Amino acid sequence: MLLERLYARPRLLEAAIALDRAAPAVWLGLLAAALLPTWAWMGRRVADGSDDPLGVLALAALAVTAWSCRRQLRVAPRLRWLAVALLLAVASSVAQGWWPPLPAALLGLASLGAALAAFLPARVAAAPVMGLAVLSLPLLASLQFYAGYPLRVLTAEASRWLLSPFFLAERMGSSLRVDGRLVIVDAPCSGVQMLWLGYFTACVTALWAGRADKSFLARLPAVSAIVLAGNVIRNTVLVAGEAIGRPMVGNAHDVVGLAVLGFVCTGIAWVMHGNGRHV
């Protein structure tokens, strides 16, 4: 009887549909409001120059994804993901003031990603959504601090191996001595920013191509390999220039870095796009 009345009154039916569609937005809005301490900390960390603002790109990608699916949001969310979102949100709230800000913010952003996964249609994979939620954190400085040196050592050793057929090269920590010239593999050469951009490209391409979770996760090792190879090639080219007495400085250095980054992101997009959608 209620359905008959609704169909008899188109405006009433439209209002009912709009109300159903508003429920996911209300849930997501309340969760975003609950993360106000996290947003405030993230804003301060970016504003004071403590970290790069690349996370804004990930937040924008999440917003575009949600907006593009606004008419297909689930009225009945996936309960597993909704439960994960609520648990993570509670954990983030409890962690405020007890844990360091970054882990607490990680829990909060992960809860937002899980909530989006709960309401987005089935054709949208959850894994790249969660990936973008993690990438939205201002974490590059922390990654540089904890993972920068090991990545620099790995990059230096791989570059030494590539340079050895042409130069007398040896590695000393994260530095290289090439034909008697000491070349330091510094923090920007660790590849942390390239790693972030590589995974960002992977997540965005997977969402655009409609790639399933298992397929997306299976391609992540290839993404890491492409980033590592790109960073090693960039470092090798720059070190070779130093070795022959023609160091690339200023614009030349930036051009090499941007060119390699372009090839890396293109390769990752090709790997993630594959042979079509929903593969």
UniProtKB/TrEMBL annotation:
Chief location: membrane
Q: Name one Pfam family in it.
A: Exosortase_EpsH
Q: Which GO terms describe its biological process?
A: proteolysis
Keywords (alphabetical) are: Cell membrane, Hydrolase, Membrane, Protease, Transmembrane, Transmembrane helix
Q: Name one GO cellular component term.
A: plasma membrane
Q: Which GO terms describe its molecular function?
A: peptidase activity
Q: For this UniProt entry, which segments traverse the membrane?
A: 21-41, 53-69, 81-99, 105-122, 129-147, 191-209, 253-272
| UniProt topology in membrane | Multi-pass membrane protein
Which InterPro entries did the record assign? Exo/Archaeosortase_dom, Exosortase
Q: Does the keyword Membrane apply?
A: yes
Protein's cellular compartments = Cell membrane
Query: What name goes with this protein?
Result: Exosortase Q
